[in-house]
């Protein structure tokens, strides 16, 4: 069986997903590429030998020859397009965020719960990154004792003009929130946001977040979207008997000019290209088997990331430690399995 | 267009290739798995949803529903099966070695030259390993000046009983010979083999090889098939202005028990799984386009690796520096392109 | 001129200082070793060929044949012994802390200011550690742009029974406070303390501190006195254009048992032995020249570290961000030089 | 007791030794600095507060107020000055080489044997480098099994004009020969020298040496005096169960401009400054105790390094593997202890 995929959105993320579906996956066909810009849709479709193009996402989702939907359109459209797919019973891989607000995330959850089945995988691809998986495996194998702290660093070369500390929390930090929840299997219950005063003007706006989990662990996150020196994601998990860190993954080391160096990429693609490939492969397999991909982020995970970001935004404004109040989790999202 | 592949050989390499064809590649179908052991063929076929099984490699190659042949059967069968495929005009990906002797390699070359077209890609997968590719790119970009030396280290955990220094040269070192030729775009013209006397008995038999290239460069290779500590492949290319080394690729670093450590794998698969995937992807693409995969090893490269190993074996026996005498290279293998 | 030194305290720190004075320094003599335990004093004196022993620290300080005093006695005695030495006009190297309370630190400052000269160097030895010095030099050379964040990790194998998060702040964190102040040339103006709830009982009590500086920078500190895996001090300074981290300093790397590892020491001595040697060498030189050692911690620095720790302790109790209110700094401690 | 030292030679090495004697050692006085250039002698003497200067090395050695002699004058003078000191019964620390020829080394050995006591320590300072010491300790502790191979890399930024592959063997490689003999406690019995033909003209002249030891081990050495990228000394010792490598010793790591880098020094001094200090400290201690410094190179070691270099030079000329024929070792140099 071949899964026929509609990719919604032909921007940088959509183009990359179209390429993965077309070139990197067994058992998937790139059926249609959809974008409000027909030119964009057509260019990405041609580059990746898609069957067809569309400028109407709802129509694309509804096509009879589309089995599954990969949503990589602008963030504001994620929730409504996801709901459309659920209504048709079609599986969705939705780029993060699942929705702009936790309320809209809950609407997706309600739609799944009404049917009693998960349709949505959220594109927190780090859950498929071999180094995060290895970190979690190291913890679960008992090699570092029980987890007590986790330190996370998220650095981009440069943010768009006007990107603020607030946006660092709502746009970038969710990847960190989800990675922490994935590795620790714990909820985040409070968040305290800090911003260096030195950088309030202009292009410089890192934030430091300190979080507590339901298991009594402490988490720190630095989000630095103007780190300048390179795309750099780091994490260290500290247990009672040891610690585990994401490794260095440089292909080569170069010695020249009194320096021994390894390269940073300019953006996330080289760092996480394997994670995206494995994520999308697991998604296709889950459609074939009918069982959600092990370890993947579901709608509940998408909701949590957004809800934590909302609490972080309030903390940044108030300067106070802020509780993360979550809705009650439906049994549909119980880790043990899916509901009937 | 989907390429229907016969995988010949269902041992450890054949099984891995069957999995890659079935699970990791777009545009390829695993049509038949062939092994002299029907049970092995059937097991690998089932694990990878192959269409059919066979115990007769020649029959498998001749099947109408087979477009291309991936040879991973015992080394002694490589040349004759490759010739069979060439006779039928079917493209071949042949695991190394292309043949047990340089004479048999030349027979394959003659078969291709008689037709005037390349059919054979040899499975020197390191040419698709991102770190070797990056090393070559670093050289070609002029970052280290002209190449003058290359140091190579090939270490396995443990060799089968009876594995000797001679076998290290004929079985393991060819990967190094080909990596050097790939990175440097130069021929190896002499070889001197050394063996530590301490280890002539029992399971311990590393060799050190010193080679000269057609461009006046010096190459060293250590092959240590009983290195015990892990599977470890290293290389450093030294230029007039700098040096470039293969990077460390550990997913995580673990701190415990007064030690900070990264893991070695027990065999080559984790180290080179991406290389195999990209190699096979490039092979499938070359079938679709009709153009040999850029950077891939062809029959000439397969011949050279075997011829160098033969000279190395003679050097180990004589204790003398030994010339590598190669046949004349047909224009079919000119780097610039393929003959008409 | 040879400086005749009295080492007060023959515990683990005092013994090490006695060894350094005796064996590692040109221009210094170990004149007397003093400890309330005569046996301890005698053992350390004999091991290091001291001229004499004493059990009375005040008498030892007053000896005519003692030119300078190195205080490594219990923390509660630091301030009064330092004041005794100042009264006599003898230079002091006082192990941290300068005093148990900021009030007592201020008494030392007042004594110096009354005379109008610095007599005291505080044993914040990291200011002489080549890696911290290199970090500061990298910042000052403009290689990473203006500093905006600094992350610090202080990990010990195991704390004594009963060691608490509070003690982590008052006993261990001052090394971090001083390192931050040294590297950044900035004051710490607020501190927020966090403790993982998971570890409130028994032997496990890390703390995470978030601090703001007078220059608007954000600082994080993890103090983890039961890190189990080894003695490990890390720091990363993040600037607007790059970052600089303390390097790994392993003498060797060992490959065995499917692992590539470097060793951690069990305590601080191997990590900082060079820092102590250079610190003490600089102290002896400052006595000879009469000019305080460049970069060394003075009484004001000792006061600041203690005052920050007091604010941190209050924050840990209140759960609130807490201001660090410092006394006014006398011109005697102006960075430009010493007062007349 | 204070050892009064004459430093013979006020060039780059002599100036550094004068500084170490003056500033870094307890129990030593810099009595006289001697150089044929009075200006040089005077400059170094003043910079390091020496008591006196001299332009006559023999007279300096004979001075009543000189207890011990540190020879850092031009290589051609080493043997005769060492003999002069032995004649007077004064201990010597002689920079490598002990003599320009193995014959002259043997003359020093004969002088010691005639008296029946060792007077000479040769300045192979790597025996005091913590990383080489740690490598040897790792081997002796059985952590890597019996040693079977050792790989050594010696790289300088730039050699003086006219420096040849021959000079790489006679001037630079002796440090490697001695390091191998120190770590392995084995003799080198054969040597094969290789030179990349690409670099025979001009400033580029690396050599690769392959050696066999008395214990049946294989050794490789690359000497690359025009490596351009930095001063870089590497070594890896391969045992039957594992391997140990010299560690990276960078004080800091800098992240900027899409690169993560550590610095190389431009010459040997930062890399080995601790080795020189510890070497000279051990030398002073050996004078006080009358027992040769443990692990230090003696006259026999100096002879061996020169004899191996001579064999290497012959191998480079002949292109053949060349035996290293050593004189018989006097019992005075038995590892177990010194003769009566
Ligand atoms: Mg994503
Ligand atoms: Mg292969
Ligand atoms: Mg201290
Ligand atoms: Mg030397």
Provide a descriptive summary of the structure in words.
- 4 copies of one chain form a homotetramer.
- The first copy, chain A, is globular, with a radius of gyration of 20 Å.
- A 7-stranded mixed sheet of chain A has the order 12-11-7-10-9-8-15, with helices on one face. Chain A has a 6-stranded parallel sheet with strand order 3-2-1-4-5-6, with helices on both faces.
- Chain A has 2 domains: 3-126 and 274-298, NAD(P)-binding Rossmann-like Domain (Rossmann fold); 130-267 and 304-323, 2-Layer Sandwich (Dihydrodipicolinate Reductase, domain 2).
- Chain A is 37% helix and 24% strand.
- Chain A has 9 helices and 15 strands.
- The first copy, chain A, has helices at residues 12-24, 38-47, 57-62, 78-87, 102-115, 130-140, 165-184, 268-289, 299-318, and strands at residues 3-8, 28-34, 52-54, 68-71, 92-94, 120-122, 147-155, 188-194, 207-213, 218-224, 232-239, 242-246, 252-256, 259-263, 322-323.
- Chain A is α/β, with parallel strands linked by helices and 340 residues long.
- In chain A, helix 1 (12-24) crosses helix 8 (268-289), helix 5 runs antiparallel to helix 9 (299-318) and helix 6 crosses helix 7.
- Chains in contact: A-B, A-C, A-D, B-C, B-D, C-D.
- One magnesium ion is lined by residues 95-96, 123, 125 of chain A.
Structural class category of chain A = alpha/beta
CATH H-level superfamily of the largest domain in chain A: Dihydrodipicolinate Reductase, domain 2
Mean pLDDT of chain A: 95
Bound molecules: magnesium ion
Q: What are the segments of chain A in which pLDDT stays under 50 over at least 5 consecutive residues? A: none
| Count of individual domains of chain A | 2
Biggest beta sheet attributes of chain A: 7 strands, mixed
Give the H and E element order of chain A: EHEHEHEHEHEHEHEEEEEEEHHE
Question: How big a fraction of the residues of chain A is strand?
Answer: 15-25%
Largest interface: A-C, 36 and 36 residues
CATH architecture of the largest domain in chain A: 2-Layer Sandwich
* CATH fold call of the largest domain in chain A: Dihydrodipicolinate Reductase, domain 2
Widest sheet, order of strands of chain A: 12-11-7-10-9-8-15
The residue fraction in helices of chain A comes out at 25-40%
Report the strand count of chain A: 15
Silhouette of chain A: globular
Which oligomerization state do the chains in this entry correspond to? homotetramer
Query: Rounded to an integer, what's the Rg of chain A over CA atoms?
Result: 20 Å
> How widely separated are the two ends of chain A?
24 Å
CATH class of the largest domain in chain A: Alpha Beta
Family (chains A, B, C, D): Belongs to the Gfo/Idh/MocA family.
Protein name (chains A, B, C, D): Inositol 2-dehydrogenase/D-chiro-inositol 3-dehydrogenase
Domain Gfo/Idh/MocA-like oxidoreductase N-terminal (chains A, B, C, D): 3-123
GO molecular function, one term (chains A, B, C, D): inositol 2-dehydrogenase (NAD+) activity
């Amino acid at each position: 069986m071949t899964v026929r995929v509609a990719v919604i959105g032909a921007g940088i993320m959509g183009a990359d997903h179209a390429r993965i579906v077309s070139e990197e996956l067994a058992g998937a066909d790139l059926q249609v590429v959809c974008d409000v810009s027909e030119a964009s849709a057509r260019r990405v479709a041609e580059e990746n030998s898609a069957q067809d193009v569309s400028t109407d996402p709802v129509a694309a989702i509804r096509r009879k020859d589309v089995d599954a939907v990969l949503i990589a359109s602008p963030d504001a459209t994620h929730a409504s397009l996801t709901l459309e797919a659920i209504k048709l019973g079609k599986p969705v891989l939705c780029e993060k965020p699942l929705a702009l607000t936790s309320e809209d995330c809950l609407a997706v959850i309600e739609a799944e719960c009404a049917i009693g089945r998960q349709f949505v995988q959220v594109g927190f691809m780090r859950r498929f990154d071999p180094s995060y998986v290895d970190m979690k495996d190291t913890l679960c194998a008992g090699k570092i004792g029980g987890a007590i702290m986790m330190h996370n660093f998220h650095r981009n070369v440069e943010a768009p003009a006007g990107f603020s500390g607030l946006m660092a929390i709502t746009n970038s930090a969710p990847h960190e929130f989800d990675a922490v929840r994935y590795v620790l299997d714990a909820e985040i219950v409070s968040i305290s946001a800090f911003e260096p005063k030195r950088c309030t003007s202009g292009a410089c706006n890192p934030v430091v977040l300190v979080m507590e989990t339901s298991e009594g662990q402490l988490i720190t996150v630095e989000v630095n979207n103007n780190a300048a020196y390179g795309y750099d994601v780091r994490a260290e998990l500290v247990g009672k008997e040891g610690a585990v860190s994401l490794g260095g993954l440089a292909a080569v080391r170069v010695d020249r000019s009194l320096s021994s160096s390894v390269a940073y990429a300019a953006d996330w693609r080289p760092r996480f290209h394997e994670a995206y490939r494995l994520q999308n492969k697991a998604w296709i397999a889950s459609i074939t088997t009918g069982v959600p991909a092990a370890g993947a982020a579901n709608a509940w995970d998408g909701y949590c990331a957004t809800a934590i970001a909302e609490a972080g935004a309030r903390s940044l404004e108030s300067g106070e430690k802020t509780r993360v109040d979550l809705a009650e989790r439906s049994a549909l999202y119980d880790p043990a399995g899916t509901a009937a």
